Amino acid sequence: MTLLITGANGRLGSQIAQRISDATLRLVDLPELDISDFDAVQRYFAVHRPSTVIHCAAWTDVDGCATDPQRAVRMNGLGTGNLAVACATVGAEMLYISTNEVFDGTRTDRPYWEYDTPNPINPYGYSKYVGEQELVRVLPRHYIVRTAWLFAHGGKNFVHSILRAVQSGKDLRVVTDEIANPTYTNDLAEAVLQLLNTKRYGTYHLVNEGQASRWEFARYILDQAGYSHTPITPITSEEWQRASRPPAHGGLMNVSANHLGITLRSWQSAVDAFLQADGNLSHD
User: Fold this and answer.
1) Are 6 and 54 in contact (CB under 8 A)?
2) What is the tens place of the pLDDT at every residue in 158-197?
3) CA distances for 100 relative to 62, 145, 247, angstroms
């Protein structure tokens, strides 16, 4: 088996790569391969002929996508379509990392299941949904994996941003009306590889169990890191101006993956493990 990971320099792609030892592994990212270039993708696949593609590459700057929606569709949507065509040409299967932002966030009775109808409300979510449609249209042997609110070691993420803010003495203001599933990249990487081994193609939600508001997420981080007495001012999304509007109720439920025996721990346990690994978990 020859396995290709796009976006291999990213935090998810690199985590998946670290867990693979029994395959011929190819790692690709910009500038080696621009997935929005159809001809370049075809040439790359003709030479390397992967049997499985894990497609992590994406333009994930949600606010950037809002300011340049055409580029978002070109990179996240049509770029995924280019890979799907190339996979079909060489007989490869493909796993595509998508997002909870394909939903509009109006469902309040329960988290979204895999076959609820997408209705993206911002350019990032729309571009990722275009990618889903391109993949379904072209390649029957596919997995769509939707996830949410990833936090990973290294680089910029919500956990580190909250801790840096409190350590620098900044006043914390966090929204209460945006809800989703905080998800540890390490846990997602494990689940992705488990799913690939099933050969049960389809659409899956892979997030740490449970959902929280941004405020609840931040409060838990501070409590577990030894800052339980640090206040966080609750605000609404209307008070936090940004270019993109995320879905208000963007929680996902792992219905299909659970049916296959693939489960992820609670988001609280995942945060504890993350803080422990970074040396930030309080033992008070």
Assistant:
1) yes
2) 999 999 999 999 999 999 999 999 999 999 999 999 999 9
3) 12, 10, 8
pLDDT digits (tens, 9 = 90+) for 57-109: 999 999 999 999 999 999 999 999 999 999 999 999 999 999 999 999 999 99
| Annotated catalytic residue within 96, 112, 124, 126 | 124
**Radius of gyration in angstroms for the set of CA atoms belonging to the chain, rounded to a whole number:** 19
- Gap between the Cα atoms of 37 and 103, Å rounded: 28
Domains of the chain: 2-153+183-211+249-267 (3.40.50.720)
Distance CA 263, CA 261 (A): 6
Residues 148 and 99 sit within 8 Å (Cβ to Cβ)? yes
- How much is the pTM? 0.95
Residues 110, 181: contact at Cβ < 8 Å?
no
**Alpha-carbon distance 270 to 278, whole Å?**
12
For 59-149, strand residue ranges (E) read 93-99, 142-147
Task: Give the mean pLDDT of the chain.
Answer: 95
CA distances from 270 to 104, 147, 217 (A): 26, 15, 12
Angle between helices 79-90 and 123-138 (to 10 degrees): 20
Beta bridge partners of 172: 232
pLDDT digits (tens, 9 = 90+) for 261-282: 999 999 999 999 999 999 888 8
DSSP 31: T
Using DSSP, how many helices (H) and how many strands (E) does the chain show? 11, 12
Minimal CA–CA distance to 20: which of 188, 190, 187? 190
Note if 204 is an active site residue: no
